[in-house]
Amino acid sequence: xxxxxxxxxxxxxxxxxxxxxxxxxxxxxxxxxxxxxxxxxxxxxxxxxxxxxxxxxxxxxxxxxxxxxxxxxxxxxxxxxxxxxxxxxxxxxxxxxxxxxxxxxxxxxxxxxxxxxxxxxxxxxxxxxxxxxxxxx
Length: 137
Fold this sequence. Notes:
By secondary structure, the protein is of the alpha+beta class.
């Protein structure tokens, strides 16, 4: 296998992003059939770290951050063919290198819930979210 290149990218092609979401299984929980939302996800993330093998996108860590206090790692996707090779860990490390003072936060996909403690991340029991404004009292 040729070397995998990890890098910060200022722009992410929505077609490439959608493709790696599908190849990672993360597409099961992302709006892959809504091209405008995928495009907006790419355009509005302000920290994108990629893993490429021979130019092909095989992994991505897409985050929203203020670069000093918190970084929300909203998508960590690695092509199934390349999983269990340390690519996800390296994407997280590079995200953290770009935001050394910020706390890195993510919500785990159900299938990955046991992955994060194995790589040294700590679980937090006080997370809250809302999908619909009508759910608020």
